[in-house]
Amino acid sequence: MDNPYLAAYRAATAHQRDHDPRGLGPDGAPWLSCMCDDCRGLARQRGFYGLLREYAWSIPTDTALDTIAGCSPHGVLEVGAGAGYWAWQLRGRGVDVLAFDPDPHGRAGWSSGRRWTGVGVGDHTAAAQHPGRTLLLCRPEPEWGAAAVDAYRGRTIVYVGQVAERPAQLSSPARVVELPRWAGATDRLEVHER
Description:
Organism: Pseudonocardia asaccharolytica DSM 44247 = NBRC 16224
InterPro entries: SAM-dependent_MTases_sf
Strand order of the largest sheet: 3-2-1-4-5-7-6
CATH superfamily of the largest domain: Vaccinia Virus protein VP39
Protein name: Methyltransferase type 11 domain-containing protein
Number of domains: 2
């Protein structure tokens, strides 16, 4: 399945490098929008924040999606799915995904309002209702992610996000998959087994 977010991230990196490398972080990842004449006035849309709002807060790769699919023989429960970009990518690989978010329409302003796939209205309590599925948490609010981990009675938890914001109940991961990162981010995918 095509991954437009990864393509957009790579395009943003190349564009930034070509037009205004001052907008690149120390690791070479884009941070700010290019302010060349072509981009002035479109900075918010072309910059990292515009891409976060359009797609998701972390960037999936084929390896990350295959890892989730491989450890989810009975499907995935994504809690805090946002507009459903990760769920959409997984469903495109044939993974059975139940996706929930308290605000799937992004009315609070965290998303552009685009919906990638069906996401039901629900919060961390959904984790208790599907113990046979792998719990997927993509960039959860720290206390919210912790509540989902506490509610979940299953075996496998996949955490995607910044290491420093990982729920404290999760010990050392069984597997780590590095992800493309916006400058200043430490996002990665971790598989945790109980």
